[in-house]
Amino acid sequence: MNLSNAQVTIHGFFWFRKLKTVFFLFVMVIFPILILPAQNPQVLPLDYHQTEDGRVIFYTTNTLISQAYLFVDFPQLRNMEASVELPYRLGVTPDQTGNPRNVPLPEGWQPGQRDLILFSLEPRDPGTGRGYSTSFQVRYRSAWGNPDTVTPDGFSYWLPYEHGTKHQLTQGFNGNFTHFGENQFALDFDLDTGTPVHAARAGIVIEVKEDSNRGGSSAAYSQDANFILIAHQDGTFGNYVHLQPGGSLVEPGDRIEAGDHIGFSGNTGRSSGPHLHFDVRIPTHEGRMISIPIELRGRNGIPEEPREGRFYYAYHPGGPAFEAVFGSELSNQDYEDHTASIAATDTITFRTEEVDSTIIVFLQNGFAEPQYVEVQLGLTNMTSTQGRSVSLEVPGTTEVFLTILRPNPGVSRAAYRFQYRYSPR
What we know:
By secondary structure, the protein is mainly β. It has strands spanning 8-16, 33-34, 47-50, 56-61, 68-78, 80-82, 88-92, 115-123, 132-144, 156-157, 166-171, 187-189, 196-198, 203-209, 215-216, 226-231, 237-248, 255-256, 261-265, 269-270, 276-283, 289-291, 295-297, 303-304, 311-313, 339-341, 348-355, 358-365, 371-380, 382-384, 389-394, 398-407, 415-424. The strands form seven sheets. Strands 11, 12, 13, 14, 16, 17, 18, 19, 21, 22 and 25 form an eleven-stranded antiparallel sheet that branches. The protein has a five-stranded antiparallel sheet with strand order 2-1-9-5-7, with no helix packed on it. Strands 26, 27, 28, 30 and 32 form a five-stranded antiparallel sheet that branches.
């Protein structure tokens, strides 16, 4: 019987009634209880073989391309003994097969060539009691990697999008929406659907999912995210999630270099809008994977701690030089000499430019003659580099700089409005 689901509880019942030397075996009933992990089904399946004398032999089928870790426990074990210490934990290497513990196998049973015999459950001596029964419940989990050998080396990760492009980190470590539990140290970047995704570190592609076209903000969509999982040399794994359907350019077994184009971002799985979820994760002794804190290579590839709300340019090894412009660094001096001719409109208008979350405001005098303009700014959760009241004289059919607006740190909503009056000069 195949138990290849994520976390399974199996109830097995073996009933024996002692009558002289004859035992009667009745039916074994199985009740699977499924608790899925955040991403996908198990790395390793758990199977068992039942013998005629009531023994149960557990084994796995090993088709791995990287190390994995298996955790098995028995919340209930009645009148049965395991041949190993419980809970059972094992690091499995690719192509590891056979019967290393020399578990006695029933006559006539031939495990497959890729099977790895794990352990067995043995019925205890029924003694002389009037009735006798055995039962068990088994839980198991498996994950890529091995917690006994993983040694995170403090690598500073490149940004997981195209060199020279800039995106905002919309949800950081301990984010309120989904960054808790195994995703505590995940990072969400504001990438539109179809935006190229690039490798943040070199490694080997271990697992790819790209067949989902479902997504939404409900936890019901947690299993539907397309993703790419890449193993690094220190035993950690880079996890790229929410890719678009068919959004992978790589396959398991591919060797990837830092900066390589590996796929396209999307909006699959549990997601409130298009973005790229990226985390670095390690396996645990409980057969799970959890994210760990990392540094990003920010400006000019210099390592820094990720900060929610900030914009980051991607700098990749060997990429060409480019000019980096951050809205947070713009000042009045960058625009104080700005003037531009405009068409005559016989009105006063405003024009804005947006750099990151910074808004640069220009005032346009569409009259032929100069105008004296007084502007009052109504701001909600925003600041102005020129204050809330600005007065200036504007030549005819000319655009000039007015102010720079920025949302206050940590706010989710900001707004602005203009009130003005003008007169010819």
